Amino acid sequence: MILGFVVALGLVFPGLARAGEILVYTALEDDEYPGYLELFKKDHPDITVKVVRDSTGIITAKLLAEKDNPQADVVWGTAATSLLVCDQNGMLEGYAPKNLDKVASQFRDTANPPHWVGIKAWETGFCVNTVESEKLKLPVPSSMADLIRPEYKGKIVMPNPASSGTGFLTVSAVLQTMGEEKGWQFLDKLHDNIAQYTHSGSKPCKMAGAGEFPIGISFGYRGIIQKQKGEPVQTVFPTDGCGWDVEANALVKKAAIKPEAKVFLDWALGADVMKMYAKVYPLTAYPTGVAIPEGYPADPFKILVKNDFQWAAKNRDRILEEWTKRYGGKSEAK
């Protein structure tokens, strides 16, 4: 897989030196983050931001590989469980960005100053192609439990948790809510119905939207945004609870920390960009007053399972090793 997608934003004024340049790693969606950065560009035209974007697992692996020679200045919108792994390896610098006092406790590190701070959360959602499902006479699944029914055999695609944060939060939720013994038994049965595991959390929804498969296990934002674009996609939030994680920011520990990195982190938790996040992600770090997007339940926090981030981070490597051993044979080629 070609790692990342690099975008440089900034204004260069002839004869004037740039105030600074920072490198930001992110797992935010590739059709999502450019709009946010346009706002940053307006607010801080003298700071150049270079972005490396990829799936959560790939960004996490890149950060860990660069542990002894960190390249990024900031991590933006990447799973809190991944940042906890980085923090356990001593890779993050504590920093209290502006507006930290507004952030809900479950959206931030407990350390003072925090080593990571969330901006929003994302959750498991099924993307169901209503046209294809009707053709195949498939009922729309309403729960995770429904997905192991025999009629769905070969009709479901799902993200690989080793490369996708959406895949990991979904697997982690199964293991936490069912217990590991029953959880792995459930995942065995689900595997029987899976046609393919993808290396992107959004790809199952894109495949469902294109009619390649009737059902894609993905996340809420993806299905809702695709429906807004006219695709025949119904987003289902499982009634037995949604796995979830926090998209969080962090300051990378380096010998020389750039002041522009802290400026970016302050901006990324600001009210203006938080309202932009809330237009498609109602689970924001603090209230914005923005109406909940159509397609989400009235209280989206109520659909989330209880999630122990520390447990998920501590057991991440073990879970992924076991998952890959059991199910990796159905993963798409990298």
UniProtKB/TrEMBL annotation:
GO cellular component, one term: outer membrane-bounded periplasmic space
Keyword Transport part of the UniProt annotation: no
Higher taxonomy: unclassified sequences, metagenomes, ecological metagenomes
Coiled coil: none
Designated name of the protein: Ferric iron abc transporter, iron-binding protein
GO biological process per UniProt: thiamine transport
Gene3D superfamilies per UniProt: Periplasmic binding protein-like II
Presence of keyword Signal: yes
Entry GO MF terms: thiamine binding; thiamine pyrophosphate binding
Keywords assigned by UniProt, alphabetized: Signal
A Pfam family it matches: SBP_bac_6
Species assigned in the record: hydrocarbon metagenome
InterPro entries per the UniProt record, alphabetical: ABC_2-AEP-bd (IPR017663), Ferric-bd (IPR026045)
